[in-house]
Design brief:
The complex is a heterotrimer of chains A (583), B (292) and C (378).
Chain A (H helix, E strand, L loop, with lengths): L13 H17 L5 H25 L7 H17 L5 H22 L5 H21 L1 H4 L17 H23 L2 H11 L1 H6 L4 H27 L9 H14 L4 H17 L7 H15 L3 H10 L13 H4 L8 E12 L2 E12 L3 E5 L6 H8 L7 E6 L2 E2 L5 H6 L2 E3 L12 H9 L10 H15 L14 H14 L4 E5 L7 H14 L5 E5 L3 H7 L2 E6 L2 E6 L1 H6 L1 H8 L9
Parallel strand pairs in A: 3-8, 3-9, 6-7, 7-8
Antiparallel strand pairs in A: 1-2, 1-4, 4-5, 9-10
Helix pairs in contact in A: 1-7, 2-3, 2-7, 2-8, 2-10, 2-11, 2-12, 3-4, 3-10, 4-10, 7-10, 8-10, 8-18, 11-12, 11-14, 12-14, 18-19, 18-20, 19-20
Chain B lengths: L3 H30 L6 H18 L4 H24 L7 H23 L14 E4 L2 E4 H23 L1 H11 L1 H6 L4 H27 L5 H16 L4 H21 L5 H15 L14
Antiparallel strand pairs in B: 1-2
Chain C lengths: L1 H18 L10 E7 L6 H21 L6 E7 L4 H12 L6 E3 L4 H14 L3 E3 L14 E3 L4 H15 L5 E6 L2 H16 L6 E5 L7 H10 L3 E5 L3 H13 L6 E3 L6 H7 L7 E4 L7 H14 L5 H20 L4 H10 L3 E2 L4 E2 L10 E8 L2 E9 L3
Parallel strand pairs in C: 1-2, 1-3, 3-4, 4-5, 6-7, 6-8, 8-9, 9-10
Antiparallel strand pairs in C: 10-13, 11-12, 13-14
The chains are: A alpha/beta (583), B mainly alpha (292), C alpha/beta (378).
């Protein structure tokens, strides 16, 4: 029986969703029609929708956004102005506000193309500040600092408890969506981008598109929360959506746990209700707020929910038989066909010629080794080939197609896969999720079928002997096993050409031996492998062809015996004795 | 008689020098510890309030109070590092960014509780308000800020390029692993940078106070612009921060005069967004790339 | 059967308990709900508002209201609009509170107004945005002159007393400044004068040289201003003098408040300001000032005077109404004529505006001197 992971089930959580909707609708009938309690709950509910957006952009995708209050404000103003000034029905105005927020969110996401971390923080702050200025000063449109009054609610929801019910139902749906998103293909892609952009791009993830989507979804949820907020309070003004509020929303997400929408919900409720309860501390609570942010970062990095969930988390083995990797059932020998052809490849860093006109042809089905002393340009070669560096000159063809100018994920779509010398696994994810990202390589036959993605990932883990560790966090594995996770991740995507960048680096003797056996098991199934290493034992064990680089130039090319006896190669290695203990 | 353009240029440079001065403190932390400190403006605010307490409340003479305030700020920098940076240093950039944002809210509100929202007055270095020359009113405090910024850049250059401590700091900022292999006490170097950055921020606040008054919000106001100056100039680049600050000051002053006063800050931030989109490495910056 | 009876009895009992607060008991205080800031940027001002209200409490409780004392119930608005809404809803949920004292900030009053209308009980407030009382909300009563009057008074004083025609108007683009600037512009237009410069700025501007140069090159011979923050006012005043602009300057109340005087020092000497409260304006304001000084060792300003009046007015209205019924209190408030308060003489109009006059004060080398009081017709 093929194992089915719960998260692979399409309708997972739907019954719970339905129950939750009925429950909150029932609860909302108990709410008062106006007054303090109603206001507090309404504020918490609408804020929580906006905070769920932060979970997506910051928690899943790892992109900091200090403008969530701005998106909240765009949604609120769209709804408010749409209903009061333009006489639109509430739902239409709300949709308008959400669309405006989403568009601005996506545009901000565009700036994340080349910028991360502090740049993004600054971009989002700038946007936040500009929006506040516009809301205050474009009086003709926004009514300026006076704000918008008498915002109506949709027909049938005029009563406080009814509108609260609406807000709660939306909140439940949003929370469910954000929770489902995390275990979806897009969610995994976001988390991969968060944990390691470079590895994500070589797994076929369009990093840029993923970030823009994360920003868009986040802004959409922000706008949705804001629109409902406008309906809830009937009055909005620019100061409700200023920079300080973005910080408040961020703190809510961090306190509860930014990795989970349930955490965000918890954080929002705590921070809306707590200051109301602790009114005796009122003189101090903003200071307490700031201190809390630091304390959370230091002592509760996963937030309240994350810490509790982390404690309760049990590693469960995934039971059931899986079919072996399709690759292993194929047979194939080396053919004359060229899987990858490199011509005149050059890469210069300033005056340094890391690669200086290298030609190389990798035949389909062969194991081709690229060797050379330290600094000979091997890793640069892999990085240029996979698209991480732009070549200074030359041409790269995959199966006859020119891919020289394309992005890394484009090449992965063409069937290229790689591992890294310095391991690049997705540290915030489980072993299985890491390999599932690989299986979801665009162009892979089963990439679109969730159940088979799980089966394929398990098969790949089976192959490298880590099936039993599928549920563990990848960071808890040994160095050698993390390397195997990388190999499994690459294999799960059924690549045509596999690039192994110094796979033996950092392994002990036993592990190296195992690696050699593993690579030999891969031979003869039609998979083309380009292996870069300076471990001669390993290379001699597996290579059909060897190309030798030195000082960025090719100095030898051919069968293992001939190449290793080549005088230039011997000379090149004389300066540096054969190192079996490569660092 | 005052001439429009030269006057705007002078004030723009004066305001720009304020941004540059605060930006200098930013740059050091980025270079030595890879920390983007969102509480840098609060260093300035704290420095100015310390000076108010020392000079105005306790009656310590100005030129005695100044070094005391700066020294206290240096000590505070170490404390700040211990709370917001040290425990998080191995967890990447984002947690540190967030904790410095938390620190900035915390510091501003603690001072708000202690001093209330009303701004306070701090006298300048000179009693004379300024003088008119060549159609420009030269405000003496702006002149002292511009001179101080120039001196501090020179001082920073001398420390970094001409002293052993400077070399060690530089080595630390370039490659922490390598530096520690060479026997440089990396932790001490990072703490020294925090102390220096905090002292510099405090000094900037003291110099700026006679112009902008001393208020809880003064830090947030300047630091956002200083941060923008930093990006415009090139992240982590010292001459870039100075020029970026001056450019921002001049552009926003002229923008206010010729485009729109209320949208003055929007002009500054739009300039920043433009730079981020078109030339994210800034005027003098290095290419942004991660090694595979 | 017996079960039903018990339940019914229980239900009746509950109703009786709930209704109890409405049945006047002589010793029970009448609670007045107050939305004042005690956190956020206006925390300091909140303290002053409370001071004024407490002083009035002594007055009212000497004679009592319907034989009962007043008691203030304070909720913090955190100096934010949502904070004000929450604070008000906390007060509104206490059924025994017959009337409220709202905020001095217009946006907060705007934010609370729909809830005030919903609950249908009078609220005294101090926000000066003229539109607040024009929204058809009959429960709002203003205890300060609104901005249209400050604009009218500034225009009247500048044109009739100072004899100036070429006006430059500088205003903050926040709610207060925008409305004030607009009101002054309209008052001037009513006199057939179009200002030569309308110049807005954003709060916390840090540099005003562009504004000052615009004032200078406009050729104005008088300056009217609406500044919100004293820090901005101080920087503007200093740069104005530095760049050689010496025209007469009549400003909104912030130009004469203590912080501004302290920050700007000599740069504000010789300016005029409008103030809704001035110690020397009337006997009532004088006596309030003396009592405040005795109680708090400081001179009062408008933050305290309006809450002082608000509590007194409520006391009087409830006594006049002889009832705690909101509608009767409202009618009694609306009927108040010629009440001499600390802020001036109250005559509530059909909109709920009680005052129509301002005091002109002068800054004589740092001392604020009462110049004259200008009352406008409704």
């Amino acid at each position: 029986m093929t194992p089915v992971l719960p998260q692979a089930r399409l309708w997972r959580g739907l019954p719970q969703l339905a129950v939750a909707i009925v429950v909150v609708m029932g609860l909302s009938t108990l709410a008062p029609q106006s007054g303090y309690i109603l206001n507090i709950v309404m504020q918490a509910a609408t804020y929580a929708i906006g905070v769920a957006g932060l979970v997506v952009v910051l928690g899943y995708c790892g992109q900091i956004s200090l403008a969530q209050a701005a998106f909240f404000g765009l949604g609120a103003y769209g709804t408010a102005l749409g209903t009061t000034d333009y006489g639109l029905p509430f739902v239409v105005a709300l949709a308008l506000g959400v669309v405006v927020a989403t568009v601005f969110g996506a545009v901000l996401g565009l700036t994340s193309l080349r910028l991360g971390g502090h740049y993004l923080a600054m971009v989002t702050i700038s946007f936040q500040q500009i929006l506040t200025l516009v809301l205050n000063n474009w009086i003709g449109l926004t009514k300026g600092p006076d704000g918008v009054k008498n915002i109506p609610r949709p027909p049938g929801f005029e009563r406080g408890d009814h509108f609260l019910g609406l807000c709660l139902v939306v909140l439940v749906i949003v929370t469910w969506y954000a929770w489902r998103l995390k275990t979806s293909r897009l969610g995994r892609a976001m988390q991969a981008v968060r944990d390691n952009e470079i590895a994500a791009s070589t797994c076929g993830i369009d990093v840029f598109r993923t970030k823009v989507l994360a920003f868009g979804i986040s802004a959409l949820l922000g706008g949705l929360g804001g629109g409902l907020f406008a309906g809830a309070f009937a009055y909005i003004s620019p100061d409700q959506f200023a920079f300080g509020e973005s910080i408040v929303l961020l703190t809510m997400a961090l306190l509860g746990g930014v990795q989970s929408p349930f955490g965000a919900l918890l954080g929002t409720v705590v921070l809306v209700v707590l200051p109301e309860w602790l009114r005796d501390l009122k003189r101090y609570y903003l200071a307490v707020y700031g201190a809390a942010v630091i304390l959370i970062m230091v002592f509760l990095p996963d937030g309240i929910w994350g810490s509790v969930a982390g404690r309760l988390r049990r590693v469960r083995a995934v039971e059931g038989e899986v079919a072996p990797l399709p690759l292993l059932s194929q047979t194939g020998v080396e053919s004359a066909e060229v899987a990858m052809r490199i011509t005149g490849l050059a890469k210069h860093f300033g005056g340094l010629k890391a690669l200086d006109g290298v030609d190389l042809a990798v035949r389909r089905g062969s194991v081709h080794a690229l060797i050379g002393p330290n600094g000979s340009g091997k890793t640069t070669f892999i990085n240029v080939t996979t698209g991480l560096y732009k070549p200074t000159a030359g041409r790269i063809e995959l199966a006859g197609r020119d891919v020289t100018g394309t992005a890394p994920h484009e090449r992965t779509r063409q069937g290229l896969a790689r591992t890294f010398q310095n391991i690049r696994v997705f540290r915030g994810m489980t072993v299985l999720d890491n390999v599932m990202v690989g299986a979801e390589r665009p162009g892979n036959d089963i990439a679109e079928k969730p159940a088979e993605v799980v089966a394929r990932a398990l098969a790949a883990l089976d192959f490298v002997g880590l099936r039993g560790d599928a549920g563990r966090m990848v960071g808890t594995l040994s160095y050698g096993h993390q390397r195997y996770v990388e190999i499994a991740r690459a294999l799960a995507g059924s690549p045509h050409l596999l690039l192994l960048d110094e796979p033996a680096a950092g392994l002990n003797m036993t592990e190296k031996h195992e690696l050699g056996l593993l690579l030999r098991r891969l031979k003869g199934h039609g998979l083309t492998i380009l292996i870069v290493d300076h471990d001669m034992n390993l290379v001699e064990q597996v290579a059909d062809h060897i190309t030798v680089l030195n000082f960025g130039r090719r100095i030898a090319d051919g069968g293992p015996r001939d190449v290793l006896r080549h005088p230039d190669v011997v000379a090149a290695y004389l300066g540096e004795p054969r190192r079996d203990e490569a660092a | 008689m005052i001439d429009l353009v030269p006057q705007l240029l002078f004030t723009g440079l004066g305001i720009g020098a304020i941004y540059a001065l605060v930006a200098l403190g930013f740059v050091l932390l980025i270079r030595a510890a890879n920390v983007v400190n969102f509480a840098q403006g609060e260093f300035s605010m704290l420095g100015a309030y310390l000076m108010v307490v020392l000079a105005s409340v306790l009656g310590v003479p100005y030129y005695v109070a100044l070094p005391i305030a700066v020294a206290i700020m240096a000590g505070f920098g170490v404390l700040f590092a211990g709370a917001t940076y040290w425990p998080l240093r191995s967890r990447g950039q984002l947690p540190v960014i967030i904790s410095t944002i938390g620190a900035s809210i915390f510091l501003a509100n603690v001072v708000l509780i202690a001093y209330g929202p009303s701004p306070a007055v701090l006298p300048g270095l000179f009693d004379n308000e300024g003088f008119e020359a060549g159609g420009v009113f030269m405000e003496s405090q702006y002149i002292s800020i511009i001179v101080a910024a120039a001196l501090l850049v020179l001082l920073q250059f001398l420390i970094f390029e001409k002293t052993l401590l400077g070399k060690k700091l530089q080595a630390t900022s370039q490659d922490k692993e390598m530096a520690s292999l060479l026997g440089i006490p990396v932790a001490t170097m990072v703490l020294i940078t925090f102390a220096y950055s905090s002292a510099l921020g405090g000094l900037a606040g003291i110099l700026v106070a006679p112009v902008l008054f001393v208020s809880v919000g003064m830090g947030a106001l300047i630091s956002l612009k200083a941060f923008a100056a930093n990006i415009i100039g090139g992240f982590g680049n010292i001459p870039g921060a100075i020029l970026g600050g001056l450019a921002l000051g001049v552009v926003e002053t002229f923008g206010a005069a010729f485009i729109s006063v209320p949208y003055k800050d929007a002009i500054a931030f739009a300039l920043l967004l433009l730079f981020l989109l078109v030339r994210p490495q800034g005027l003098f910056g290095e290419k942004i790339a991660e090694k595979a | 059967m017996s079960m039903t009876v018990t339940r019914r009895g229980l239900a009746l009992g509950t109703v009786a308990v709930l209704a109890a607060p409405h049945v006047a008991r002589a010793a029970d205080p009448i609670k007045i709900g107050c939305v004042f800031p005690s956190t956020g940027p206006a925390a300091e001002a909140g303290k002053l508002q409370l001071n004024g209200a407490k002083l009035a409490l002594e007055d009212v409780n000497q004679k009592g209201v319907l034989g009962r004392p007043f008691e203030l119930v304070i909720e913090d608005d955190q100096t934010t609009n949502p904070g004000a809404v929450l604070a008000f809803s906390r007060l509104a949920s206490q059924a025994e509170i017959p009337a409220f004292i709202g905020s001095i900030r217009s946006t907060q009053v705007h934010a609370m107004a729909p809830d005030v209308l919903k609950i249908g009980k009078p609220m005294m407030f101090g926000g000066t945005d003229p539109t607040i009382t024009k929204m058809g909300n009959k429960w709002l009563f203003r205890c300060r002159p609104n901005d249209s009057y400050s604009g009218k008074v500034i225009a009247e004083f500048g044109v009739s007393d100072l004899k100036k025609q070429k006006w430059a108007i500088v205003y903050s683009t926040d709610a207060f400044g925008t409305n004030g600037g607009k009101a002054l512009e309209e008052s001037l237009k009513a006199k057939g004068i179009t200002p030569v410069l309308m110049q807005g700025y954003t709060n916390n501007a840090s540099d005003f040289s562009a504004v000052v140069l615009a004032v200078r090159s406009s050729g104005a011979d008088i300056l009217g201003s609406y500044f919100t923050f004293e820090g901005d006012l101080g920087i503007f005043a200093r740069q104005l003098r530095q760049l050689g602009v010496r025209i007469p300057w009549v400003g909104s109340p912030s130009i004469v408040n203590t912080t501004a005087l302290n920050l700007a020092q000599a740069a504000l000497h010789g300016t005029y300001g409008v103030a809704d409260y001035a110690v020397d304006a009337t006997p009532a304001s004088k006596s309030f000032g003396d009592r405040y000084l005795a109680a708090y060792k400081a001179l009062p300003d408008n933050q305290s005077s309006w809450t002082y009046d608000a509590v007194n007015l409520l006391g009087r209205a409830i006594n006049d109404a002889k009832s705690l019924e909101p509608e009767k209190i409202r009618a009694a408030l609306a009927a108040i004529k010629s009440y001499a308060g600390a802020e001036g003489e109250y005559n509530f109009d059909e909109f709920g505006d009680g005052l129509r006059g301002y005091n002109i004060v002068r800054n004589e080398s740092g001392k604020i001197v009462f110049d004259r009081r200008i009352d406008m017709k409704a």
